[in-house]
Amino acid sequence: MSPSRSMNPGVADLGRILYEPGAVFAGLKARHSAWLPLLAFLALQSAVAYWWVATADFAWQREQMTAGVPGLAPQGQAALETTIAPTPMMITLQLGLVFGTLAAYAVQACYFLVAGKALDADVRLRQWFAFVSWVNVPKLLVLPLMALQIAVSDGRVTLEDLNLASLASLLRMDEANPWHGLAAGLDFTTVWSIVLATIGLRVWTGCGARAAAVTAVLPYAVIYGVWAAWIVLFS
Fold first, then answer.
1. Of 38, 59, 77, 151, which has the highest C-beta tally within 10 A?
2. Residue 29's pLDDT is what?
3. Could you tell me if 40 and 17 are in contact, meaning their C-beta atoms sit under 8 angstroms apart?
4. DSSP code per residue over 126-190
């Protein structure tokens, strides 16, 4: 079999998982490679980050940062001017994207490993890491929207507001709003990933729909529930 032909099924699965997830997860349990969606996500994310840094108006970015920190001391102002510059931002962003994504996927995989044990599923951590990688495929759909935002922003858009599909963007929420950070992290791909995880859990563990849905929703409910409670209590 030629290399191009051997890769075709995996590439096709990137699209198929969005509309035929059950069949894709059934195949993935046997050949649980995480690399295709993971590398696609990292590569596209890295390209968007590079474009943002290359076109950003850093004088404006510094103004936005200092506006959120009233009474900033001269030393802090100098530190911001050093940090919010093309080269340090590029290095920080690219390293953060790679290691942050890997760490987030590893934590999710560990959660599903524990959840899988509770569901009597004989699935290893490496398989769950691949599972997480494929469940997050919908996030690829947000990256073109981020690129569009960069294209029309004339360099004046913050990282938090890059995602046009986020709840914060759709509600036109000001960054000073205490709910902005939470809303900026929520978009349609969050729900889509939960749906994919629910379907995948049913295929991989044989559990019922309710158990799969609860398992898929639980980490999001805990994270955003604690975050929301913190905002209510301390903002």
1. 38
2. 84
3. no
4. HHHHHHHHHHTGGGGGHHHHHHHHHHHHTT---GGG--TTSHHHHTT--TTSTTHHHHHT--HHH
